[in-house]
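Hi support team,

I'm filing this because I wasn't sure whether my run with adenosine-5'-diphosphate finished correctly. The job status page said complete, but I'd like someone to confirm that the output block is well-formed before I use it downstream. Pasting the exact inputs I used:
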Amino acid sequence: MNYNIVFSLSSFFYISLIAIIYFAKQRVKNKENTVYSLLIVSNIIGLAVEVFTAFCGKIFPGQHLIEEIFLRLIVVYFITWISLFSYYVTVISGKDKPSTRNTFKVIYGIFLITSVLLPLHVKRRAGVALYSYGPSIKFLYIATLLYVLYIIFILLTNFKNIKTRKYIPIIIYFVFGTLAAILQMINPQLLITSSIETFITILMYHTIENPDVTILRQLNMEKNRADKANNAKTEFLSSMSHEIRTPLNAIDGFSQLILEENDINVIKEEARDIMSASQNLLEIVNGILDISKIEANKLEIVNVEYEPTKIFEDVSKLAKTRIGNKPVKLITNIAPDLPDYLNGDYGRIKQITLNLLTNAVKYTKEGYVDYSVKCVRKDNVCRLIIIVKDTGIGIKKENIDKLFNKFERFDSQNNITIEGTGLGLAITKKLVDLMNGKIVVDSVYGKGSLFGVSIDQIISPRTKDQKSVENTAADTLISYNNRKVLIVDDNKVNLKVASKLLETFGVSSDCVSSGDECISKINDGFIYDLILMDDMMPGKSGTETFKLLKQNPDFHIPVVVLTANAIEGMRENYIKEGFNDYISKPIDKKELERVLNIYLN
Ligand code: ADP
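And here is everything the job wrote out:
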């Protein structure tokens, strides 16, 4: 065949390169990519057929039939490529529907069959085919023209749906395609259409939406993770709101009742309920604080001497009150041979035991909760073994591993009415880990659960008798006679609470509601043994007031910050500022007593 094969060969080379790059890449599965893949493949096959046809006469001399078959295949290729290209335009314009696809297939089939059936003549010179012509070729031109008209129609009717850069190959196709058609009509030997199509296909490669699938997958994973965290937070907030409102409801309700009640016994009973509800509220807030400490890796274990039996009995009493009137029996077995005193963080040990016991009580509708504490002694170490067994709803096997994740709550149908935040076990596990202990779970869904904790504690050499002697000795030393405290707080109720609590220790107090008033009192020569200073006050903060007081070299009154700013690290911050001590609100009477012991005694 006497035409310039260089175009076809170089086009074949380039499109093969593009094909390698394109198919080697992980692609998003969408229609645009599918049609584009077909366009590449058809272009490669078309060019291969074209190149082969060029050498056909030489490879098979005199075999005109083979040559004619390949010439027809070229016609098939042209129809296929333009059909795919117009389908591609349909896809990118967002007009692809199953009915459109079917219509496309039918029209393509008709065009293909017609072009194959129509006669095709071959112009030869000296036995070598120069080009083909005749009705089949004419029909190819008509079919191409129809496809082009369709493309123009789609472009005009869906102007806004198609992204600007996607127009580039289409417009170039129109310009170069028309040019090639004219040139080929003038000189039928010049076969450059397939090369133009290669050029268009290569251009299209740069306009195809083909984001990196790996990155997409990672983004998706991150999105799922963020969604999950967000949902957990939303759930947490809604359950928190419920958790907080429940005790608040009791506090509010009983307070109103007290105001209307005259019977002192009823008032006392209701006040006790208020205390229990506020205790509950405090536990919730402390839970949130604990989680914030855990996240900041700042949860610390503070070891002091404590009476284990008392702690474990306290927990049992607390758990008993939580059973209410459910038909659940609490069996408590605290080994009588527990050492009198242990060294450890009793607050945290209590928290761990209470969490497990509260859960057992919460998630058991009937039956029993068996709570036992044992000690395995080795030298001066007591391995505390705390076991809580219940006949409750149990935990599914697949959930056991997730049990200690924060905010995880399971079996929502079964525990829809059970209050909880999903923080308890996360905190419990962390506390056990911090004390180098172990926690185990065994549960049969629908039957019950067993939680076991083992923690080593150092046995204190003191015995109960020694301690009580010392205690009594210490107690007798405490005397707050003639001691006076200045309380600084902008909130009147807080002033009242602090002053009333001080009264219970026999300590008298003056109350002021701002930093300025505090400074005036001191400058006016009032003498105090201690100042309890709120920090967050309008005007001068407690810290600012304290700094101003300190500027006076004659000021030596101990100042203890009394604040609701109780998040992790605050105590250390205030001590760094120079405050003598720190008490968080709500005031724990024991904490107040500790401070009074130090500064008034
Ligand atoms: P909360 O009880 O506040 O939801 P926890 O962290 O203490 O949070 O417990 C997490 C989840 O583990 C609970 O919501 C519950 O589904 C399950 N669970 C914990 N203890 C028990 C138990 N003794 N019996 C059955 N399910 C339990």
